[in-house]
């Protein structure tokens, strides 16, 4: 199976005879994971670090226009330099301490979003406090709007003249694994900042701090249109509030096998192409374990009663903010009858033999908007590509994840 | 080890010889999971269902005052009936369709929060559409405020006269497992609703719908103080927005073992009692797999470099909204030196022998505010109680989770 599987980040190779690898084998790294960057998250509030990292000659910028990434081809992110983006973000966007930035908050000013993504420690050059080394990566939102309409428009013209473009479409599944992981981090953070301009606790506008990883509700706002600069108290200012930090929604996605281990349950949504099926999935709810969420979702969507559930692997999915938690679940004897009447989410759910799934993984996979390969025969089962964790889960089941030897 | 371990919910017992149980054994169910309720989430928008469930004679209410649950003793939730709460929530809080409730939205009215928790299918009585049966459970916020100050105050007086009380303190770890799971669901949802009265996308007040599981941003507000009832467009109204649904923050927590499998790394925070240590933990960030988050957090907090990471089990943790994802990670050879200088979160982190941890699990565990048992000797390692997933992870390591046989 040709997998755009990212290698584990360095240093991440256990000793060959270590107990964990002995029992569990190599870790499954799904598409969008496997970033080469060290996020050094504790340096994000440090304006000296950010200011020096921003202007280092090795520093690399990925640009987004309305959440569409700049690419040089469908399989390559394009990168930019500080001089490219200076007209948008200014000479010194991290020139003041966070404390001062909060003090001088003015909600009428548009500040293009910058996200510090991390240091690529494989590249030499930039060094901070002797300890933190590597090529700094940032993401910048260059959407032409508000005070940067002209400068961003001009920048975009120039990029287009160089043959670069902002990739249309929602999904970006053709990037090499490590670029995909960098793109995923940037997209998730830019989307979160754009989606949350107001404080859910008090309703006032918020300010991005921590290089894009936090939104704070300033106690004062000196915008001329505001009647009084002092704002009412806000609960997010007393102690640590999760509302200030990026949201990630845990989602369960599961390969369901029959009680005898011979069949796999797949479902389809109405909007999908004909013959296309996938594993069931849904959001984990408050106060559920992963296993409980898997059993609830499978029952609600298909009527199947599951017994044992085992977590297989996880996948970041930045559309907009999911953590996909992949699992394998087994139906209990007598609990295998499909019933679509509880929740109306699926158009169909049915049991397939392992042979059907194995054949479809060989000849019937593609992206949702694409055609399957030349060996696919009309009417055969179609499945998602290897970049989707659904594909990995089905593959794991037909290749014996659960039994230690191929189960079917 | 005396564990308040909830049984798996019915129907959840795989066949004895099923492939999953053969390989993986019994699932670990942590405290706060294992709810006996079927949430029938697809019935939450159905006002006919909610109206009839609310007033059924078997229906049970758990009450909260400022997020503190009503209890009859530290180890028992107290429950109430519809006639108890009628003065707070009114005769027919689900009497109108959701569509009408949204149309008639008036932000000046205080609506006490009601959450539909699920059906206890073990109890007969209530039946809906022939298919959905069981005792309905609801949570109600009876905090005396706004228009219910008097009625809630009176209700609370009456409850106190019966010897009931609202449990002070943040953690509730003495409830029987299934009550703890019901409490966790209720607390997480009430907290989320209370914490998010405004729309993060447009800043306007939002309205609770779906029996407490969704907050919507109505297009009109007929409150007399509002200048124009029609509100500006809001992005959460076009398509499905994650902002409308409860937030759950994925958190990683991990037992770290040395490269030779002989020692366990534990850390402590300054505010903890003397000699008290626990596993490291932290929030998963955008676009990280669970394994990546574990490696990043461990390196940032302790300087240790991890290789292989294996997910052990998960735990809902409703303070306020966490999904704890428990893992075991192994240090790489040469990556075991403790360095606390990256992130300043821990006061100390150090390696303990398995024997020290095993002994502390036997004699040195307790809640944070409690004393350890009589066999504890001053100066010995202290650890969290069995209700914490940290305890389960340490126990799993010294009992051989990773190797199949006790590893140390």
From TrEMBL, chains A, B:
<dbReference type="InterPro" id="IPR049734">
    <property type="entry name" value="NudC-like_C"/>
</dbReference>
<dbReference type="Pfam" id="PF00293">
    <property type="entry name" value="NUDIX"/>
</dbReference>
<keyword id="KW-0460">Magnesium</keyword>
<dbReference type="InterPro" id="IPR050241">
    <property type="entry name" value="NAD-cap_RNA_hydrolase_NudC"/>
</dbReference>
<dbReference type="GO" id="GO:0035529">
    <property type="term" value="F:NADH pyrophosphatase activity"/>
</dbReference>
<dbReference type="InterPro" id="IPR020084">
    <property type="entry name" value="NUDIX_hydrolase_CS"/>
</dbReference>
<dbReference type="GO" id="GO:0006742">
    <property type="term" value="P:NADP+ catabolic process"/>
</dbReference>
<feature type="domain" description="Nudix hydrolase">
    <location>
        <begin position="246"/>
        <end position="381"/>
    </location>
</feature>
<keyword id="KW-0479">Metal-binding</keyword>
<dbReference type="InterPro" id="IPR000086">
    <property type="entry name" value="NUDIX_hydrolase_dom"/>
</dbReference>
<dbReference type="InterPro" id="IPR015375">
    <property type="entry name" value="NADH_PPase-like_N"/>
</dbReference>
<dbReference type="GO" id="GO:0046872">
    <property type="term" value="F:metal ion binding"/>
</dbReference>
<keyword id="KW-0520">NAD</keyword>
<keyword id="KW-0378">Hydrolase</keyword>
<dbReference type="GO" id="GO:0005777">
    <property type="term" value="C:peroxisome"/>
</dbReference>
<dbReference type="GO" id="GO:0005829">
    <property type="term" value="C:cytosol"/>
</dbReference>
<dbReference type="InterPro" id="IPR015797">
    <property type="entry name" value="NUDIX_hydrolase-like_dom_sf"/>
</dbReference>
<dbReference type="GO" id="GO:0019677">
    <property type="term" value="P:NAD+ catabolic process"/>
</dbReference>
<protein>
    <recommendedName>
        <fullName>NAD(+) diphosphatase</fullName>
        <ecNumber>3.6.1.22</ecNumber>
    </recommendedName>
</protein>
<comment type="similarity">
    <text>Belongs to the Nudix hydrolase family. NudC subfamily.</text>
</comment>
<dbReference type="Pfam" id="PF09296">
    <property type="entry name" value="NUDIX-like"/>
</dbReference>
């Amino acid at each position: 199976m040709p997998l755009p599987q990212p290698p584990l980040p360095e240093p991440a190779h256990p000793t060959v005879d270590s107990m964990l690898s002995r029992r569990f084998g190599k870790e499954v790294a799904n598409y969008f994971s496997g970033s080469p960057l060290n996020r050094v998250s504790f340096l994000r509030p440090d304006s000296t670090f950010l200011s020096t990292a921003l202007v280092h000659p090795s520093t690399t910028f990925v640009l987004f226009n309305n959440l569409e990434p700049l690419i040089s081809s469908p399989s390559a992110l394009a990168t930019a330099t500080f001089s490219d983006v200076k007209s948008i973000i200014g000479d010194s966007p991290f020139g003041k301490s966070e404390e001062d930035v909060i003090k001088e908050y003015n909600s009428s000013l548009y500040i293009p979003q910058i996200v510090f993504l991390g240091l690529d420690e494989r590249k030499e050059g930039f060094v901070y406090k002797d300890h933190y080394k590597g090529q700094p990566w940032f993401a910048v939102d260059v959407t032409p709007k508000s005070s940067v309409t002209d400068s961003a428009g001009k920048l975009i013209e120039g990029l287009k003249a160089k043959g670069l473009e902002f990739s249309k479409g929602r999904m970006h599944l053709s990037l090499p694994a490590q670029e995909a992981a960098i793109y995923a981090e940037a997209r998730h953070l830019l989307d979160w900042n754009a989606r949350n301009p107001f404080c859910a606790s008090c309703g006032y506008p918020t300010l991005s701090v921590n290089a894009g990883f936090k939104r704070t509700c300033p106690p004062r706002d000196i915008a001329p249109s505001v009647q009084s600069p002092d704002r009412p108290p806000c609960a997010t200012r007393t102690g640590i509030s999760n509302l200030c930090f990026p949201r990630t929604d845990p989602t369960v996605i599961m390969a369901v096998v029959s009680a005898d281990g011979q069949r796999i349950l797949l479902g389809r949504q109405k909007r999908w192409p004909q013959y296309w099926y996938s594993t069931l999935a849904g959001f984990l709810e408050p106060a559920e374990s992963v296993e409980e969420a898997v059993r609830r979702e499978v029952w609600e969507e298909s009527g199947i009663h599951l017994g044992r559930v085992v977590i297989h692997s996880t996948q970041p999915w930045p559309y907009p903010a999911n953590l996909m938690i992949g699992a394998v679940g087994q139906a209990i004897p007598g609990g295998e009858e499909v019933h679509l009447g509880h929740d109306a989410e699926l158009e169909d759910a049915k049991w397939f033999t392992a042979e059907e799934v194995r054949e479809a993984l060989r000849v019937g996979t593609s992206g949702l908007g694409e055609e399957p390969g030349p060996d696919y025969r009309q009417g055969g089962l179609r499945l998602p590509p290897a970049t989707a964790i659904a594909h990995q889960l089905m593959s794991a089941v037909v290749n014996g994840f659960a039994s230690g030897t191929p189960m079917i």
